[in-house]
Amino acid sequence: MILRIFRAHLKPGMRDAFTQLCEESSIPLMRKEPGLVTLLVGKPLPERPEEFVLVSVWRDLPSLKAYAGEHWEEIVIVPGEAELIESASVSNYDEMFHDVSRPQTLLADSLAEWEMHVQEQVNLSDAQWERIQPLLPPARREGRPRANERKTLEGILYQLRTGCRWQDVPTGYGSGVTCWRRLTQWELDGTWERIWPVLVATLDAAGRVAWARAFLQGTIVPVRRNSRRAE
Q1: Domains of the chain, with CATH numbers?
Q2: 6 to each of 36, 45, 88, 131, 226, how far by Cα in Å?
Q3: Does the predicted TM-score (pTM) go above 0.85?
Q4: C-alpha dist (Å) from residue 138 to 7, 149, 174
Q5: Nearest 10 degrees: CA dihedral of 25, 28, 32, 35?
Q6: CA 27 to mean position of chain CA atoms
Q7: pLDDT, tens digit, for every residue of 33-81?
Q8: What are the CA-CA distances from residue 174 to residues 24, 88, 171, 222 (Å)?
């Protein structure tokens, strides 16, 4: 088994807000993983009231990697948490309490940079696109050529992640109006409901918790929107 200990030294008065974010985002995601054995949140100690401790036990190292991704030894936080933290650290041990990775500690500035990087990562990898492309409706053989589907999807993801106005979607993704129209079409015909689970399945832990935050903010709820329109 692998014991993973996450510690966060929180800014004064931020424990409740940080705990709520964990309970709404990262903890539910971890509990869905089949390789998770148990998960415990440490009680605050009188001498260290601003310390938050989360202990997770995984069946084996592959189970932890399935959750945390290629960079499993690194710190994973929920977007929105960086502003609540002074510093954070993570350590991983085997059943004999031997280190299985070098302990990592990050200060607030580095955590904020990491969070910004994760939140802005919306461009699809070639592997992701190969899995998603077959799920899209076939291109029309006649009439005006369609916009680049990959860039259009990335533009949709950019808007959903950032919450910007459609007209403010960067021109590198094509027309924001086209992105909006395509999302509306895909919601109506069921394409979006097929795309979304496949996309989420390709994300590492950092990517999944970033999108979980978007769900919490009400920015993106594809199944609900599709269901309402179908009524």
Answers
A1: 2-119 (3.30.70.100), 126-230 (no CATH)
A2: 15, 16, 7, 33, 37
A3: no
A4: 49, 11, 20
A5: 90
A6: 12
A7: 899 999 988 888 888 888 999 999 999 999 988 888 777 887 776 666 7
A8: 34, 39, 5, 22
Separation between Cα atoms, residue 212 and residue 208, nearest integer Å: 6
State percent of the chain over pLDDT 90: 16
Based on its alpha-carbon atoms, the radius of gyration of the chain, rounded to whole angstroms, reads 20
Cα–Cα nearest to 81, from 160, 161, 17: 17
Angstrom distance (rounded) from CA 28 to CA 209: 10
Tokens of 104: 């990592």
Q: Helices 205-216 & 149-162, crossing angle to 10 degrees?
A: 60
Q: What's the pLDDT tens digit per position in 133-174?
A: 999 988 765 555 567 899 999 888 888 777 678 888 888 888
Contacts of 134 (CB under 8 A, 6+ apart): none
List, in sequence order, the alpha helices (H) in 1-125.
Answer: 15-24, 26-31, 61-68, 108-120
Res. 223: pLDDT tops 60: no
- Evaluate whether 88 touches 6 at the Cβ level (below 8 Å): yes
Beta bridge partners of 90: 6, 104
- Helix locations, the chain, DSSP H: 15-24, 26-31, 61-68, 108-120, 126-132, 149-162, 176-189, 191-201, 205-216, 222-230
